[in-house]
Amino acid sequence: MADPTQQEVILQFMSLASCDADFATSFLEANGWNLELAVQSLYGDAATPSWASTQLRGRRIGRAKNLSEIYRPPTEICFVGSFEELRLTGRQQSRWLLVNIQSPTEFASQQLNADTWTDEGLRAVLGSSFLLWQRYFDSEEGATYCRHYLREDATFPHIGLLDPVTGQLVKSWHGFTAAERLAVNLSEVPA
Question: Where in the numbering of this chain does the UAS domain appear (predicted)?
Fold first, then answer.
């Protein structure tokens, strides 16, 4: 539970971002409970209001365009097709399968889209030996994956490394995973 000072900052952030307490808490924690920094992180410097001489004043900032750009799925690096097509392509191209199952209500899923999948170093690692496939857990294909691979251990977001030949889940990560950590782990996978 947040202390009274943190609770006040959460309420201020919720007012500015038109979000719920969980989203606000996640953003504020990630920014060291610095409200100004959290708002800058959320909206980008260009849309951030001037904080130097004014209090929050209940001002609302248009966010849909900025948030959709920040948290959009990495479609340019994702495999387009079914899970079976993913496995077939992985076998044909001798590439490992990297499956990302997300929850639209978990902020860590949005963080993966904004921070991890946009990292150029990680993208270089992915492009060389991996196929990325991303689905929501409640989509038909996502639910099928969860039944086969996660069973009771369904913590989101989930990143699974699968052998394209056997379909075996070789390694998995749950929650937010930083790009650098994931790149190091993936670079250790035999080609």
Answer: 66-187
Judge residue 45's burial from the number of C-beta atoms within 10 Å of its C-beta, 0-12 exposed, 13-18 middle, 19 or more buried: exposed
Instruction: Give 165-186 as a DSSP string.
Output: TT--EEEEEES---HHHHHHHH
Output b/e per residue, 21-30; b: 16+ Cβ within 10 A.
eebbbbbbee
Q: What is the DSSP letter of 98?
A: E
pLDDT attached to residue 33 = 84
Whole-model pTM above 0.90? no
The CATH number given to 4-68 is 1.10.8
Look up tokens 């007012």; give the residue.
15
